[in-house]
Predict the 3D structure of the following.
Amino acid sequence: MSARRLDAPALRRWAHTAVADLITHTDEINRLNVFPVADADTGTNMLFTMRAAWAQADSCGDGDVAALTAAMADGALRGARGNSGVILSQILRAVADVTRSAAAERDGVLPEITAATLAAALRHAEGLVVASMGEAVDGTIVSVLRAAASAAEQAVADQVPLADVVAATAQGAADALERTPAQLDVLAEAGVVDAGGRGLLVLLDALSVTLTGQAPRRRIYEPAPTAAASSPPPEGTPQFEVMYLLTGCDAAGAEALRARLNELGDSVAIAASGADRYSVHVHADDAGAAVEAALRFGTPSSIQITSLHGGRHGTAAWSRERAVLAVVDGDGAERLFGAEGAQVLQPDQGTPISAHQLLHALVNTGAAQVMVLPNGYVAAEELLAGWAVASEWGITMVPVPTGSMVQGLAALAVHDPDRPLVDDGYTMARAAGGARYGSVRVATEEALTWAGPCRPGDGLAIAGDEVVIVGADVVVAGTGLIDLMLAAGGELVTVLLGAGVDGPVGDALTEHVHRRHPGTELTLFHTGHRGDALLIGVE
């Protein structure tokens, strides 16, 4: 839906579009993130900050843009994450400041943001961002923001319509973004443009979409090619057939979507079925990306995802079918949970699971109802953000409170897709809560714990957040933790062996349980997870 006026409803739609587009571009922005710290989280931080602004905007009415922009600025400030999130909150604050001043000149009511107001807000934002950073560094988001403000001021001076002002502003930002590697050596060395500037361009392009319904074409920004990146893609038939209806899209948007889908897969078909309505078809390995691609050009609905390889989902489409998505670590854990009927999502190189990754995995289940087992690998705010966007796509996500993979196994064991959703969720949560869990890790340095001092190589048994036993090695700490946990009762002990833990450790734990706790069943799995040497559960 497009709007030529930047009034309160249009601002709310912009916030929604900005969040959706940041989701689409989060991985791209994160890969560009080398300055000031190469921690690959700029896209994630901007997404969650904008998500907080959007949530706050939804609590306001549609009458006064000054009140709405103030709410967005407040939400962004409260929800700011990282350096890039703080910068984004300052940009939204600048919009709120300028609209508040404009409203004061009109006896307190401002029905819309004009082109001149937008240009003034961008210039004010430059000052606020520089003030928040302490200095202006060329080649960063400041350079991109400065160019955007200059382009907006020139367009206003040329007295062009608001939509053209926004288009000129976004193009000015895009041109400045291309220049950032020449302005900052660290960007040139990495072969990237500035990540924050790329995020700002996403927000400005989202504003263009809001006003015109058309998404500007932008290239995908990637780090300099490497030998690994230049290898040919794997051969074979894509995993999924993806189909959906797309509304609110024009002919130019349909062709841009076609180009993107050709990058993701093959068998692309986009057929018009009305002035702004299209039927979309593609075969792709990443069904989530194929659906997300549509968000830049319109609103997808009636989504159908079918496996082209049969298997567990067979011909299942986007329907009332239910799935379990387990977040696990280790190849052994992937096989274990997969054998029990769950689809799995593994952290990449030990990094936390983001809402973007979670959303992809949810879509790729092909189910309308997904029970999610976070197993201690997904932060609460990531779960919340993933749930919020998934619900807009018609996916009912049910997070089951599992703090460890042993709790996840307990919940998975009682999953029944034939039960009503609420009953299934309750039963799984109850099973997870009934599985007490702890872990054993190897000490890497001398330290003083609640259970006494430890030295490198000692085994540390952990329950909750505290070290409860310090043993000479993993076996001593593990057997001690099992004894402690069984003191409160239990019939089944589950032990997951981590990466580098060999068979004799499992043998020693098995012998100990059989000798000290006759009648108690012990189950061992080598999951190969990182971090903890052992994960132990008692039911």
Notes: The longest helix spans residues 8-32.
